[in-house]
Structure formats: C-alpha cells, structure tokens
Specification:
434 Repressor (Amino-terminal Domain), 440 residues, 9% strand, Four Helix Bundle (Hemerythrin (Met), subunit A), 8 strands, alpha/beta, Rossmann fold, 3 domains
C-alpha cells in the first residue's frame, strides 16, 4: 500500500532538491502537486484541503523560503502533518477490566471474522485468556468460520443454539467470560453489503444490553472513500472507539488510512497485513508516515525479525562468518529464515529507499529466484553444500535435473556464492584492520 503515493511524493521532493532557496511560486507548485497526489490516493478531499493548508502555514512559520535546505524542510513538514493525519501518537490498547469486551462491527466483506481471530491470537500470545463470540447470524457459514478459526488458535467460541438471537449469544458469552475469568471477550457481529436500519438496530441492541468497553470498526482499506463514508455512519449511530484497517498488504491507494482518523476522530489500533492469523500489527502513525515519504520503517522490521527469526540460527551464522566456514548449507538456512519474514518486495518496503526517495517498484526483485536457489541447494549432497568447489559439470547436470533448473542456473548460484564469501572475507579483514588501528 501507498506505493503510488510514495512514488509521487518522491518525484515532488526530487524536483526541489538542490534548488537552494525556494520561491513562493515554486512552493505553490509543490503544494499543488502534493494535493493532486493525495487526491489520486483517494484521500478525502476535505482532509486534503486541510492538510495542504496546514503544510502551507507551517512553511510560513519556519520561513522555508529563506532556508538553504528547502527540500529537508518540506519533507519534515509533510511528514509531521502525515503523522497528525494518521492519528498523532500511537494509541496502545490496554485491557481495562476482566473481561474487557470488544465489539467488532463493519460492512460485510471487511474481514471482521478473520480479524476477530487475529485479535484473539495476538492477546493469547501475550498471555491473556480470550473468548470469541459468534454474533453474526446473517452471513452464511459465519459461525462455522469463527469456530474453525477458534480451533486453529485454540480459543473457545460461543455459538448460537436453536433460535437464539445475536443478543442472546452476546449475553451468554459475557456470562461465560465473567464466570471463567476471561481477560478479553471479542464479539463478532453481523455486517451487510451496505448500511441499513435492520443492521444498525441489531448492533444498537447489543451495545445497549452488553455495554462493550470498546466498539471497533473493521474497515477494508481497499474500499477507499466508501469506507470513510460508512465509518462516519457507524460512528453516528454506535459511537465507535477505534478502527482496525484490513488488507494493508494490498496495492490499494491508501485513502481510507489517510482519511479515517480525521473524519471519524478515533484512533487506528491495528492493521491487517496479510492472510495469516498472526498478520495483525499495532498501528504506528509516525512509522507509517516515514514509509509513505520513503524514509522506511526499520523499527517495525526489527520487531518483525525478533518475533520471527531463530536467534540461535542467527548467532550460529555470525560464528560461521567469523570463522570463514560459511557454506551453502548455511545459505540455505538463511534463505528459509528470510522467507519466514515474507516476500523480499514487502521487506524492502520497510527500508529507506536506495538513494533519496528512489521508488522501489522501479527495481526488479523476484521472490521466485529465492525458491529456485533453495531448490538447487536442496538437490546437492551434504558434501557438495560443504565443499562447493568439488561440483564439476557432471554434478551440475545432476543438480540441475533434480531441481528442475538448468546448468547455467547452478553455475550462476555457485558464482554468486563465491562472490559473497569473498565479500564477507573482505569485510572481516576491514573490521580487523580498524580494530588494530583503534587500539594502537
């Protein structure tokens, strides 16, 4: 998400790079292009209007026209205003009491049921007891879906019996949660293809009788401005207290994420970044703003790595590199580790762009290459992985046949590995040289 907006902003910033001082006319042109870029990203037009006005006012306050580094000044102002647009300081969600009741609502297709399970898993992983309540009796198979998801994460699910209503299910879920000392109760309510009075009355009845601590709107970030309109309607009738954005890993333009806080006035607590049940992350406005303007989000990448990667494997790799015994088996293990983090293209989105605001989409990264490389190494014998220098033409043909690749592919991998080892050896020598000079 935000790739197009990121690219547009990068182009705008590059145009003013190295200009020295800005003229008022140039600043007007920059703000006009930023306005168009945000509108193309499907950001609410009122939000865009206020955003551009605030950037212009800030630029006048810091006297950007007299600055010798106008590019950095503009970038800083735009980033600060994006952080404000996305909600300012991140709002961590803390359980208020036992049980804390979170009611999820939203339109059909927004991903409520899957999000309920993701939320349950996140709190379970943090040592909290969780209960799921299947209050969506409108969508076919919604109850069965929540049951299956609950089984996958080993979280109990309260389901309807006979002719029970959604309110009946919610009430007996609350009784069960209180009786069993549950920390978090998540109510998965019904949605519609569009907002109607019947849906709202059902949700209002649950709110009136259950008095949930939180009412969170689950919003499909691909919907754009329609999502913002529906959010305003839900808020008017229910008084929502937070938002979860789903499908943030898609190529949607991002208008909902950039508009919803300003329109509804409640924080975005979490974002769904994939289809797996652990693909739910806390939302950090400052980190998201950094990614949008091309500064990356290294903190989130580090947290993702710490959660996903095997620390013992990483330490072993460090020792192997230090002792110059890094082999193809180690390379294979590292490729498996990297793939756990996700696709290379998605990982690169967390990093500052190569050069000032280079659009990563213009670079060619193919995750299938990693799969091919792993297949080639898997087709080698343990001895060949340990001593790749013994791999002659005959062995290359056997490896290529076993991995479904070509001899040229095998040769290319071996050449790349040789270059990598040479580079690591050079870095090791450089490090030793610096240490020696320092101590001397």
């Amino acid at each position: 998400m935000f790739e197009n907006l990121q690219g547009r902003l990068g182009e705008i910033f590059r145009k003013i790079k190295g200009r020295g001082k800005l003229t008022e006319k140039t600043l007007d042109n920059v703000l006009r292009e930023i306005r168009l870029a945000l509108l193309e990203a499907d950001v609410n037009y009122k939000v865009v209007k206020d955003f551009v006005r605030r950037v212009r006012d800030k630029a006048k306050e810091v006297d950007i026209l007299q600055s010798l580094t106008p590019e950095q000044q503009v970038i800083k102002i735009v980033k600060d205003e994006l952080v404000y647009l996305l909600g300012g300081e991140s709002k961590a969600f803390l359980l208020k009491k036992k049980p804390t009741v979170v009611m999820l609502c939203g339109l059909q297709g927004s991903g409520k049921t899957t999000t309920a399970a993701k939320l349950a898993l996140k709190f379970k992983q943090n040592g909290k007891s969780v209960l799921l309540s299947a209050c969506d009796l409108q969508r076919a198979a919604a109850v069965e879906q929540l049951q299956q998801l609950g089984n996958q994460i080993d979280v109990p699910v309260i389901t309807p019996v006979n002719s029970e209503t959604p309110l009946d299910v919610a009430e007996k879920s609350l009784i069960f949660a209180r009786k069993n000392g549950v920390d978090l109760l998540v109510l998965d309510t019904a949605g519609r293809l569009h907002i109607d009075e019947e849906l709202m009355e059902e949700l209002i009845e649950i709110k009136r009788n259950i008095s949930p601590d939180e009412i969170w709107l689950v919003v499909d970030s691909m919907v754009g401005q329609d999502a913002v309109k529906s959010a305003a309607s839900f808020n008017d009738r229910l008084g929502i207290t937070g938002v979860i954005l789903t499908k943030m890993d898609t190529d949607a333009r991002g208008g909902a994420a950039l508009s919803i806080k300003m329109v509804v006035g409640v924080p975005i607590y979490y974002v769904g970044i994939g289809e797996k049940l652990d693909d739910l992350e806390p939302f950090y406005p400052d980190r998201m703003a950094s990614r949008i303007i091309g500064m990356g989000d290294v903190l989130s990448l580090i947290e993702k790595a710490e959660k996903t990667l095997d620390i013992n494997e990483s330490l072993q790799l460090t020792r192997k590199i230090s002792s110059d015994s890094f082999d193809l088996e180690d390379l294979r293990k590292q490729m498996i580790q990297v793939r756990k983090l996700g696709s290379i293209t998605k990982l690169l989105d967390y990093l500052p762009k190569v050069g000032p605001f280079t659009n990563v989409n213009t670079l060619d990264f193919d995750d299938r290459e990693l799969v091919k490389m792993e297949a080639i190494i898997n087709s080698m014998t343990p001895e060949e992985r340990k001593r790749p220098q013994i791999i002659n033409l005959s062995r290359k043909k056997r490896i290529a046949k076993g991995s479904g690749t070509t001899v040229a592919d095998v040769s290319r991998l071996l050449k790349q590995f040789k270059s990598t080892k040479k580079m690591l050896k050079g870095l090791k020598k450089m490090s030793r040289s610096k240490k020696f000079k320092y101590h001397r």
